[in-house]
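The authors assume throughout that readers already know how a fold can be written as C-alpha cells. What matters is that the chain and its backbone geometry are given together, residue for residue. A single example would do more here than another paragraph of explanation. For illustration, here is how one protein appears when written out as sequence plus C-alpha cells.
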Amino acid sequence: MELIDLIPNAMSFRVITTIDIEDEAEIPVDFTGRVRRHAGGSVSYVAWYRDGQLHNPGRQYPAYRRFRPDGKLKYELFYTHGLLHDPTASRPAARGFFADGEVHYEERYWAGKRQDGRDGSPAIRKWRNDGSVRHELRYMDGRRTADDVH
C-alpha cells in the first residue's frame, strides 16, 4: 500500500511517499520515501530511502528504526547514501536499547567503516543493565586497535 504524507519541515511541509510492506521484495529498486514493515500485527521497522539507499531524512532522525513486538525501540541506525555514518560528533551511527529503553550499545562509523568518534569516544561501547560499562573497542578506518577496555 502506498500513501502520500505531508510532514512538517521547518517552516514548510515535505511530501513523503510511504509504503507499508510485508516483504522487502515489495520495495522498488530506486525508491525514495519511507517504508514501514509489518510483522505479527505490528510495525517491525521504519526505514527511509533516497534513490534506493538507506538515508537519514534529517540530521536528528535515523534512516532505520527497528521495534520490539510491544512497539518499544530496539535499535536505530543512521545512514548517509547507504553507508552507516555518525550524524554528528556526539551521536553514533548505531545505538541499541534494552527493553526498558536504556542504551545497551553504541557503534560509531565513518563512511561505512567502524571508526572511533570525532570526540575521542571508542567505536564500540556496550553497557550492562546496571549502567556500568561492559566493554569498549577502538577502531581506526575499520580496523581494530589495541586500546580496548573490557
Q: What stands out?
A: Residues 6 and 15 are 5 Å apart (CA to CA). The first strand starts at residue 2 and ends at 9.
